[in-house]
Amino acid sequence: MYEGSLGTFQNAVIAISYEVDGDKLKPPIYLLSTDIELDAPSIIENYLKRWHIETNYKYLKSNLGFDQYRVRSIISIERYFALVFLTICFLELYRMSEHSPKVQTVGDAIRQINNLSTKAIV
Question: What is the pTM of this model?
């Protein structure tokens, strides 16, 4: 672990984590925390809990077009989740109504709808 000044952070902790692969170590992962009271296992545990949330946000932003949506207040968070819920419901209804082997998942439904939009534009 490293504790000290880092960029614009006056005091931060960096936990360095290595994954063992047989007799070799995989490249390290560096985790930054501004809570200097945390030890390395706590930083890693918090990171693992947040990872599912972060990958979900990335999916929503890249695949459902929520990349411009900002959530800075409670009302915007509530609206964000309402929009996400409605979008996923629409995709599920579309997927179920298609009865096509090409549309098995929500991801398939997104691709199918994107293709329909492209065809309509052309």
Answer: 0.56
